[in-house]
Amino acid sequence: MKDLRRYLVLKYIQYLVLSSSNAVSTFLGLLGSLYTIIILQSAKVSSKSTAVLISSLAKADVLVSVSVASEMVVWTFDVRISSTAFTTALLQNLLTANSHISCLLLSCVAFEAYLITFFPTESRHFRTVKNARLTSRIIWILVIAECVLFQTDDLLKASSTSAPTRSPCVLLFHFSSTAAALLRSLSYFLGILLRIVNVYIYYKIFFSISNR
């Protein structure tokens, strides 16, 4: 459990403290996720809702691994990509999806810690493995849908110059562009809100434990 707590601290620093990821935090995050996945396979770790959320958090770094591995292959072997704009947008959107999934899952872990601290008995029927798995699936589905929308918008922007003005794709372009812009703004403000909520939750937990 101490290792899992250290992993959570690392992830909180990576996604909710640092303004943007850097090479060091990304590398440490990948190592921590790999180690956490190995730990969670052990029979010594009980299958609880928190463990399910942490497992999903660690698996989210697969998106980072794909992006980093792709860039390394292109750079090392000088691979020529037929659609550079599409690939660059895809790798960036995978990193964005990883960041959003991680922030949401970390907030779920913080909320569960709040319930355990202040409402341990009353919230027991909410803090189940089934609900944790359902929450993780919903978060993954929503963020992947967001990633698809962003990728579609980037693809349409790249091909808009060659498309005819009266093409039926113009309506799709305007719709996806507006929806993507709104979603990016919403994600930005939601990220700020999650940071504030997480700080408040751990502030309350810290002083509650100190008073005891």
Automatic annotation (TrEMBL):
A Pfam entry, by short name: 7tm_1
GO CC annotation, single: plasma membrane
GO molecular function: G protein-coupled peptide receptor activity
InterPro entries: GPCR_Rhodpsn, GPCR_Rhodpsn_7TM
Protein's GO biological process: neuropeptide signaling pathway
Domain named G-protein coupled receptors family 1 profile: residues: 32-212
Subcellular location: Cell membrane
Membrane topology reported for the UniProt record: Multi-pass membrane protein
Residue spans crossing the bilayer: 12-40, 97-119, 131-151, 171-203
Keywords in alphabetical order: Cell membrane, G-protein coupled receptor, Membrane, Receptor, Transducer, Transmembrane, Transmembrane helix
Keyword Membrane: yes
PANTHER family: G-PROTEIN COUPLED RECEPTOR (PTHR24230)
Protein name: G-protein coupled receptors family 1 profile domain-containing protein
The species this protein was found in: Cariama cristata (Red-legged seriema)
